[in-house]
Amino acid sequence: MKYLYLTLSSVLIAxxxxxxxxxxxxxxxxxxxxxxxxxNDEIKFNYDEIFxxxxxxIKLKSWVxxxxxxxxxxxxxxxxxxxxxxxxIYKLNELNKLDINILLISWRGFSGNKGSPTExxxxxxxxxxxxxxxxxxVENNQIILYGESLGxxxxxxxxxxxxxxxxxxxxxxxxIENSAKIYYPYLPVKLLLKDRYDSINKIEKINTPILxxxxxxxxIIPFSMGEELFEKANEPKYSYFTSDDVxxxxxxxQLINSIKNFIEKY
Length: 266
Known about the structure:
By secondary structure, this protein is α/β, with parallel strands linked by helices.
């Protein structure tokens, strides 16, 4: 009996240590600014590198493709939880084929930016990008919000506060809580989480036209989450669901045409 008690006590202590570690280290597990999958993609677009001011200390390194802010709609690309601007060159090469302006920002803590990423901070970063465009005389009804993975959670937060032209979500998740339960089913994630990005409870508050894109072979964010968000979304809504795509979707002609057709509707 004594040995059983000692064994159970050791297991409990080890579990508590793990829980405490996860609680304090969780943002390192969620955000990966140093991860770099850059494949030396050739840049096939003209752009300017700018720094968008959030406050006196934080300025976000960003790329802007300005074809004509006054006449064309502007797509704001809010990227996922890993990598830097160069990791999205392949995506910009294809999006640049569309008759739109593009603004790609990097989060604080990413691409050499000062600061640390948190849910609150990413919301502030995205709002700073919108303010920058507004100062360029780009109205919200001319802005397309594009959220990639983690960026989809940021899009839905700022979209519930303002009316934008349209929304595109690539490989979106329902919430960080639901995602964390998949990877850490043995942890009380609901109690531990600092950043929640509760997209599933925000999407039904938004009436902006929305396109949701997800691959059925996504091994990071389950395809079922994209489906669930689509079901909860209000009309007008559109989907681009594919059988072959994994998490970082392949930007082929079919996908680009789907985005083009969606954008031209609004």
